[in-house]
Specification:
Elements lengths: L1 E9 L3 H10 L5 E5 L7 H4 L4 E2 L8 H11 L6 H21 L24 E2 L5 H14 L4 E5 L1 E7 L19 E6 L5 E11 L20 H8 L4 E2 L4 E8 L12 H5 L3 E3 L19 H15 L4 E4 L5 H7 L1 H9 L9 E10 L2 E3 L11 E3 L4 E2 L12 H16 L7 H6 L14 H18 L6 H24 L4 H22 L21
Parallel strand pairs: 1-2, 1-8, 2-5, 8-15, 14-16
Antiparallel strand pairs: 3-4, 6-7, 7-8, 9-14, 10-13, 11-12, 12-13
Amino acid sequence: MKNKVDFLVIGSGIAGLFYALKVSKSGKVAIISKDNIDNTTTVKAQGGIASVMYNPDSYDKHIEDTINAGAGLNDREIVEIVVKEGPTRIHDLIKIGTHFDKDSEGFYDLNKEGGHSESRVLHFKDKTGQEIQRALVQRVRNNPNIQVYENHFAIEIITQHHFGELVRKSTPDITCYGAYVFDQESKNVVTFLASATMIATGGCGNAYQNTTNPVGITGDGIAMVYRAKGVVENMEFVQFHPTALYNPTEKPAFLITEALRGAGAILKNHKGEEFCLKYDPRGSLAPRDIVARAIDTEMKLSGEDFVYLDARHISKEKLMNHFPTIYAKCMEIGINITKDMIPVTPAAHYLCGGIKTDKSGKSSIANLYAAGEVASTGLHGANRLASNSLLEAVVFAHRAAVDSENIKPQSADILSKIPDWNDEGTIKNEELVLISHSRKEVQQIMSSYVGIVRSDLRLQRALDRLEIIFRETEDLFKASKITVSICELRNIINVGYLIIKMAKDRRQSVGLHYNSDLLDPVQPKV
């Protein structure tokens, strides 16, 4: 079965929906949503979206904060583009219907988060992502040029490989023609053909045991592009959010927004000591890579699985008004944040690398774009500055939309060559325990050996163990009917391999990549 559209969007978070709305003026759009359209990483974003709004803030300050957080590995031109175009895209979100909190004088109420020199984070209480998603979904649902396919899973992007041509990484003209998509209800694989395809599938948090990402965030877009011989980069830079609520039975981990530390909350160890100042003069508001390593070190010193975030000195009124979601969540498990310290632990949160894109969001594969966490634009360098992710998503979704509107439709001759998905000879595999066990094993390998602190020995051990699981899984995939679980397992193995391989190749401890065998003498060992 073939479904032809002008624009195919794989992913339904802020980047995918914003792009879809922009290009819908130029043609028919299909949005592929793995789950329902409201269950995305965007919805989990609590803190907000960073943008220069008022004096004394300035573009230069935001640019320098971003580059400092990224350890100087950022692409300065890209940083300048995002920071300077950010306010216009913020106004786009407001026009779409997004609400941001204002103060008593009618100005936007701006939070300050780790690594920021000024207050510049727009927010809607502590559920900014949920509010942005609400506004975007409402507009998408009411747009006659956009069709949303919920509970559909993209298996592979379609290139000339699928009509028999040899495609290598060195092939200069790899072209995307759409994607093979699994309808989870009918169990059929549908061929979606498009002039332009946008990958907006988010990161790969579920390659790790403990993550703030929804359970379906398994690196799907990155793995698809990698298998299609597209360029993927900087995968070693996995950001662990320092403060996820310590509640081992819950997945995904509940995020305790950095804005709470911006409001004055302080990290303390089990002795009740404020410890972050030992590692950085900015204390609990140092950039995330430094704070996460500090927490990791304190946990190893104490033998405990968590540290505490102390917000007891902040007024009850402020906690209730600004952080109602966190207050309610903690109360559910018996923690009153006005009286009790909050147990927190780092969790895999954000990928700074991904599909390499240019200034227009184009990947190395023709007619294929990427935006949001799945993309490596050059903005973040070795570590993302808090609340820059939503800003990056809308800036590059807009730029990709402008560029992709100029793409000419694919010729009927080429499209006629593309075959439907072929699963002849495969069987329905009943041994789901093999898949679930392998998934847990991959997550354990990544968490134990490729986490906040790495070493050459740990990385090699991870690579050796992952190689065995890869071979087993590929054999199972080739013999089995398509299921989401087997595809997700393949994808987390692919992204796990890329993280390990690029971590091994990065012969310097910098930003989020911290190899204890490669310490820079000017970098404190934490």
